[in-house]
């Protein structure tokens, strides 16, 4: 790694900055994997996170006395790496969520349930009591990557519907099974 010391300062700056972005992005994904209980992925990401971190840190420690600007590259890479890691995690959308919808208890709101079931979501409904009377509670468990589609379907029918979204920490295997029949647009091709 002595060849790095011979490079111009601006190239070393960019290397440290870039490597730090990669290492912190991996660290963000690793942290989320730990929270979700994904042990194998956490171990894999942790190994590479620390390996890359040591490479960046060693260059800063060796060159900081001659080029204090490397501290800025290190800190800047850390800051940007957090943002990149969060964006990457949102794009990957690992895990499952439970969406809870609360609607008034009337015939018109049954179209939300019908549309969600037609789109292939498992929907469970309950009758409840709200501040202003009877309500319909609608629960849907879906993968995070499906959440945008689910909410788009719901908001198209009920733009002002009240909903909450919570991550699933643990679930039984039964709910993770595929539906026994085709749903959504794929069902049209399997009709007899």
Topology:
Elements: H1 2-5, H2 9-35, H3 39-63, H4 69-92, E1 96-104, H5 110-118, E2 122-130, E3 133-143, H6 147-157, E4 162-167, H7 173-176
Antiparallel strand pairs: 1-3, 1-4, 2-3
Explain what the structure shows:
With 192 residues, this protein is an alpha+beta fold. It contains seven helices and four strands, in the order H-H-H-H-E-H-E-E-H-E-H. The protein has helices at residues 2-5, 9-35, 39-63, 69-92, 110-118, 147-157, 173-176, and strands at 96-104, 122-130, 133-143, 162-167. It has a four-stranded antiparallel sheet with strand order 2-3-1-4, with helices on one face. A hairpin with a 2-residue loop joins strand 2 and strand 3. The chain is elongated. The mean pLDDT is 82.
Q: What does the main sheet amount to?
A: 4 strands, antiparallel
Q: Which word captures the global form?
A: elongated
Number of strands: 4
Instruction: Give the percentage of residues in beta strands.
Output: 15-25%
Radius of gyration, CA atoms, in whole angstroms = 24 Å
Q: Determine the N-to-C terminus distance.
A: 66 Å
Counting DSSP H or I runs of 4 or more residues, the number of helices is 7
Give the class from helix and strand content and strand pairing.
Answer: alpha+beta
Tag the structure with descriptive keywords.
192 residues; single chain; 7 helices; elongated; 4-stranded antiparallel β-sheet; alpha+beta; 4 strands
């Amino acid at each position: 790694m002595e060849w790095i010391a011979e490079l111009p300062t601006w190239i070393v700056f960019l290397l440290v900055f870039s490597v730090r972005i990669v290492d912190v992005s991996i660290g963000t994904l690793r942290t989320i994997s730990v929270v979700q209980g994904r042990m194998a992925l956490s171990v894999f990401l942790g190994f590479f996170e620390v390996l890359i971190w040591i490479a960046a840190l060693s260059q800063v420690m060796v060159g900081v006395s001659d080029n204090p600007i490397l501290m800025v590259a290190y800190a800047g890479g850390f800051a940007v790496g957090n943002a990149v890691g969060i964006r990457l995690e949102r794009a990957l959308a690992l895990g499952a969520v439970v969406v809870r919808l609360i609607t008034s208890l009337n015939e018109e709101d049954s179209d939300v349930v019908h549309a969600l079931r037609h789109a292939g979501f498992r929907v469970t409904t309950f009758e409840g009591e709200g501040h202003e009377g009877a309500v319909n509670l609608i629960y849907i468990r879906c993968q995070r990557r499906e959440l945008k589609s689910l909410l788009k379907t719901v908001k198209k029918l009920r733009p002002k519907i009240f909903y909450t979204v919570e991550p699933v920490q643990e679930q039984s295997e039964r709910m993770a099974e595929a539906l026994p029949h085709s749903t959504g647009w794929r069902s049209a091709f399997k009709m007899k």
